[in-house]
Amino acid sequence: MSRKTREKITCPKCGKENDFILWQSLNGEIDPEAQQKLLDGTLFRFQCENCGYEAHVDYGMLYHDMAHQAMVYYVRPESVEQTKKMMEEAEGQFGSAMSGYKKRVVTSQNSLREKAILFQHGLDDRVVEICKLFYLANASEQFPKAHITEVFFSIIDDDTYLLEFFGDESFSAEIPRGVYEETRKSLAEKLEAAGDSESVVNLEWAMEFLRK
After folding, report:
1. Which secondary structure element, helix H or strand E, spans residue 210, and what is its range?
2. Nearest to residue 10, comparing CAs of 19, 22, 1?
3. Could you read off the pLDDT of 153-183 as tens digits, one per residue?
4. The pLDDT value given to residue 208
5. Beta strands of the chain (E only): which ranges?
6. Calpha distance 176→182 (Å, rounded)
7. Which run of H or of E encompasses 83?
8. In this predicted model, what pLDDT tens digit does every residue of 51-74 receive, in sequence order?
9. Shortest CA distance to 153 belongs to which of 34, 23, 39, 63?
10. Do 74 and 58 form a contact (C-beta atoms < 8 A)?
11. Where in the chain are the domains?
């Protein structure tokens, strides 16, 4: 199910009071329009109906993709461990009903959107993070002054993916789907042995995975 509330937000520019929807949980099957807003990056966007002022509203939520058996919690960094514990308790309570689900925890809106996009396209986020790590290492070597701090994945079309690098400088790089597929195939046995129960799958996870 989805859960949402309608809140009042006062525009900091003109003072006009606006309605704004906050999603505590979003089920893509039940609310496809809201799901699309998450995928295109507008779900958290506030736009004043009076003056047009725009801003992003930051709040935590649960995204549920039933079609691809994925659940993604967006929380503050200090709430990650508490959320992981809650997920473990829920899994123990619901048992087989949650079997096969990917359950992830992220700490930024961009990461939530990224997970939603790649799960929507049936991709393995573990493989995506490993690909990101490879490209990050190469980009950091080529552009040392960029001081890259974040890398985000998106999709151009069925055959081409995109990585966006953010730091003191911002730039992007296209990735042929073949790179993803080759990475997935070359690490298939290791990924299978590791299982898919880790809730935080990011660049740090990828580095630790490749060290093993």
Report:
1. helix 203-211
2. 19
3. 999 999 999 999 999 999 999 999 999 999 9
4. 97
5. 3-10, 17-27, 45-47, 54-56, 61-65, 70-74, 102-106, 150-157, 160-166, 171-176
6. 10
7. helix 80-94
8. 999 999 999 999 999 999 999 999
9. 39
10. no
11. 3-120, 125-211
